[in-house]
Amino acid sequence: MKPKLYPLQFEPILKERIWGGEKLKTVLNKPIVSKITGESWELSTVEGDVSIISNGVLKGKSLMELIDETPNEILGTEVYKRFGKQFPLLFKYLDAREDLSIQVHPNDKLAKERHNSFGKTEMWYVLQADTDARIIVGFKEDSSKEEYLEHLHNNTLVSILDDVKAKVGDVFFLETGTVHAIGAGLMVAEIQQTSDITYRLYDFDRVDAQGNKRELHVDLALDAINYNKVDTQKKYDTKANISNTVVDCPYFTTNFIPLKDKITVSKSGATFTVYMCIEGSFEIEYDGFTHTYKKGDTVLVPAEINAFILDGNASILEIYIS
C-alpha cells in the first residue's frame, strides 16, 4: 500500500569547508557543531549524501526509497518521464566566511562523458551580505584559452575576472562553463542540478590544517570554460502574494513569493515543488493539516499534492521543473 504523502522536510546534511563559518547556525539555526561549516545540503540524492525525511510518519525514510516506491507521486508525471527515478535538483545553503575557490562546472555532455553525471547549472539567492562582499562571475571581457592560461600561470587570474558587489536579494544565474567564486561574507541559497562535479581553477594558495593545498583541476577545466563575457545577475519583480519569475531555464524554474496573506496554489501533478523560506515564517495548509516553516527551512511538496494554501508573512523561493 502506497503511503499517504504530505509536505516533506529533511535532516540537513552539514559539510565542513576550509572557507566555512558559523552563520548557518546564527542566521538559519542549523545544528552545526563546527566553526568551519560551509554548507547545509537541504535536499539531495547525491550518492553518499541522500536526504532523510525528518517529519511525519515517513520520518527516517530516505528520499531515494520514497521515490523508488512512488516516483510519479513524488517527482511528477513529466519529471519522471524525463529523468526516471533520479531527483534532478540539489538544494543548499552556503556560508562563506572566506572566499571560495575560483571554479567552473562542466555541461551535461562533458559531465556525462567524464563522470556519468548531470552538468551543474546553478543559481544563488543572496540571503546575507557583509559590507563590500562580492562575487566573481565570468570574465570582464571576452577572453580565450591562451589568455586565461597565461594569467593562471602568472597568478593574475583574478585581474581578468568580473568582480560584482552583492547585497541581500541579489540573484545570480550561472550556466555551466561560467568561472565563478562566492566571496567572503556572503550567505546564499543555492539551487542546482544534481551534481557534485566542480573543477577548481585557483584556491588563493590556501592550505588545510595539515599544510596541504587542495587539488586543482586545470586540465579538466580547459574545455569546460566559457571564455566569453556573460551577464549573470537576474532582475525580478517583488509583487506581493504572487509567484514572480526569477530564473526560468531547462533545468528548473525559480519564483520569488513575497507572502503577505493567504494564497491558494493549484498544481497539475507534472512536477514536484520545493519551497525555501528565506525570511519570516509561513504555513502550508493541506488535507486538514497545517505545516509550519521558518527562515532557513526547505520543504518538498510531492507532485500528487495539487491543491494547498500558503499562509503567513515570509519571503519564499518556489522551485519546480517546467
TrEMBL record:
Keywords for the protein's UniProt record, in alphabetical order: Isomerase, Metal-binding, Zinc
* CDD domains with a match to the protein in the record: cupin_PMI_type_I_N_bac
From which residue to which does any coiled coil extend?
A: none
Binding residues for Zn(2+), per the UniProt record? H105, E122, H180
Report the cofactor remark: Binds 1 zinc ion per subunit.
Q: Which domain of life is it from?
A: Bacteria
GO biological process terms, alphabetically, are: carbohydrate metabolic process; GDP-mannose biosynthetic process
UniProt domain Mannose-6-phosphate isomerase cupin: residue ranges: 245-320
Question: From the UniProt record, which GO molecular function terms apply?
Answer: mannose-6-phosphate isomerase activity; zinc ion binding
- Pfam families documented for this protein: MPI_cupin_dom (PF21621), PMI_typeI_cat (PF20511)
Q: Which residues does the Swiss-Prot or TrEMBL record annotate as the active site? A: R200
Q: Which residues form the Phosphomannose isomerase type I catalytic domain?
A: 10-116
What are its cofactors? Answer: Zn(2+)
Q: What is this protein called?
A: Phosphohexomutase
**Species of provenance:** Flavobacterium pectinovorum
